[in-house]
Design a protein that fits this description.
It contains 4 helices and 9 strands. The chain has about 130 residues and is of the alpha/beta class. It has one domain: P-loop containing nucleotide triphosphate hydrolases (Rossmann fold). The strands form 4 sheets. It has a 3-stranded parallel beta sheet, with helices on both faces. It has a two-stranded antiparallel sheet with strand order 2-3. It is globular. The relative contact order is 0.18. Mean pLDDT is about 85; it is low at about 125-130. InterPro entries: ATPase_dyneun-rel_AAA, P-loop_NTPase. It comes from Hirondellea gigas.
């Protein structure tokens, strides 16, 4: 915790001219973060019964070729890990209802993991647990 993981990515983004949103998107992952919030969802419009797709932060970064920093990836729920896995393995984002979205050639994914100085996972509640 506090060793500069985020700072190094922000510095690289600054050096390459990507220091501000949307060129660098930072997402803090946790127990409350689900894949829908990252991928996007359908939202209703002013017309009754009409819905439009509203892409989430990950979908926007993947399609536009921006950098994405996922912080505390070890705190992510399994559905979020599944989304990230297909992106890392195949550079394809699987979006339910939309299908496979290939990553733009400029897209970059960075992820951090929160550990204490003793090598244990630090939770947001301030307790620690052993890392695997």
């Amino acid at each position: 915790v506090g060793c500069g993981k985020t700072a190094i990515v922000e510095h690289m983004a600054h050096v390459t001219g990507r220091s501000s949103a949307p060129f660098l998107t930072k997402v803090q992952l946790g127990e409350q973060t689900d894949s829908k919030s990252l991928l996007g969802t359908y939202r209703c419009t002013a017309t009754p019964g009409e819905f439009v797709w509203s892409p989430g932060a990950v979908t926007r970064a993947v399609t536009a070729g921006h950098w994405l920093l996922l912080e505390d990836v070890d705190a992510a729920q399994l559905d979020v890990v599944a989304v990230i896995a297909s992106l890392v393995e195949d550079r394809v984002l699987m979006v339910p209802g939309t299908g496979a979205v290939p990553a733009h050639r400029n897209f970059r994914l960075f992820a951090t993991r929160r550990l204490s100085a003793q090598g244990t996972r630090t939770s947001s509640a301030g307790t620690t647990s052993a890392c695997s």
